[in-house]
Design brief:
Blueprint lengths: L2 H9 L6 E2 L10 H5 L17 H22 L3 E3 L8 H15 L4 E5 L12 H10 L1 H25 L4 E4 L13 H7 L1 H14 L2 E5 L8 H6 L4 E4 L8 H8 L4 E4 L3 H6 L2 H15 L5 E2 L12 H14 L1 E2 L1
Parallel strand pairs: 2-3, 3-4, 4-5, 5-6, 6-7, 7-8
Antiparallel strand pairs: 1-9
Helix pairs in contact: 3-4, 5-6, 6-8, 12-13
Length: 318
């Protein structure tokens, strides 16, 4: 089976034999692994001044880097990151290059989340004031975001080479969601339900990502019916065994290997975290191996390679 085929089996809860699929939301260590800048860290201030041949070479380089990461580290899917400022036409042409290089070996995802995300420190006060003083205005804005993005998602689908959409708005701290469950169901759930339903009708696979403690809003996330939930974060107190018990028949689970331990823990702790994720995620299918966030800048590459060794030895369906 190709990596893509194994990923689809996991997302659809279909049994298969062989290695559990592996996916990471991002792999930022491209300089360390390949001596090349990650696509999202590139700034093309003179993009409009480049000849078409120069732009073609840049688009191909980014496509090649994505495929190189997938091949070297055994990924089954690619979150197709691109430089800021690229137009949809540039994204399409670069994805076409990736397909030319790798065929249909890997699932390809683009970003598709328009729901409210956890505000940063600079935005928090304004968000709180608006949601308290103008709740209907906040709902109207949430609906506007949905209505404006769906035509773009239709365009992605018309390309015929994108498999799915990643929904990457974060909702939770390590302790709790940033909105109470009741407020979450008022300001986020209805719009999350809308976009997932629309994406499914378009034929996309959907993966809902959020770090932190998702347990108070797990039922709300499940009500949107994404194909998968990422990242099943142990740093937020989320136990994959418990989530598997509650939701393992409803949704594919992706992740759970503790990123904090990968950066600062002992090797045996990292190995145990990888084993725990596999042991509790694999039974009955519907699991994709991965970390509890991503392979971020500053994480030791050898720690990522360490969990991949565990995955290759112990993450196999007989």
């Amino acid at each position: 089976m190709t990596p893509r085929e194994r990923f689809v089996c996991a997302l659809e809860h279909r049994p298969f034999k062989g290695l559990v699929p592996h996916f990471e939301l991002e792999f930022y260590l491209t300089m360390e692994a390949f001596g090349r800048v990650h696509p999202s860290h590139r700034l093309y201030r003179q993009w409009d001044q480049m000849s078409e041949n120069e732009r073609r070479l840049h688009r191909r380089d980014i496509a090649d880097l994505h495929v190189s990461v997938a091949r070297r580290f055994g990924l089954c899917g690619i979150n197709f990151s691109t430089p800021k400022g690229w137009k949809d036409e540039d994204i399409l042409l670069s994805i076409e290059e990736a397909r030319n290089i790798s065929g249909m070996d890997y699932m390809i995802f683009l970003q598709g989340d328009v729901t409210y995300s956890l505000p940063n420190g600079d935005e928090m006060m304004d968000f709180v004031v608006k949601i308290a003083e103008d709740p209907q205005g906040m709902k109207d804005e949430a609906q506007r975001r949905v209505d404006e993005f769906l035509p773009r998602a239709e365009k992605f689908k018309s390309w015929g080479i994108v498999d799915g959409l990643l929904l990457c708005c974060d909702y939770c701290y390590n302790t709790n969601p940033f909105l109470s469950p009741d407020m979450f169901d008022e300001f986020i759930t209805p719009y999350l339900v809308q976009i997932v339903k629309a994406y499914r009708e378009m034929g996309f696979y959907t993966i809902k990502h959020t770090d932190g403690n998702i347990m108070p809003i797990l039922k709300s996330l499940l009500s949107a019916k994404p194909h998968a939930i990422h990242s099943i974060d142990p740093q937020g107190g989320v136990d994959i065994a418990e989530v598997k018990r509650i939701a393992g028949d409803e949704v594919c689970l992706i992740g759970n290997v503790n990123c904090a331990l990968m950066q600062t823990g002992k090797e045996e702790e990292v190995i145990e975290s990888a084993r725990y994720a596999l042991k509790n995620g694999m039974p009955g299918g519907g699991y994709v191996f991965g970390t509890s966030n991503c392979i971020y800048t500053g994480m030791p590459l050898e720690r990522y390679e360490l969990i991949l060794d565990v995955w290759k030895k112990e993450g196999v369906y007989a």
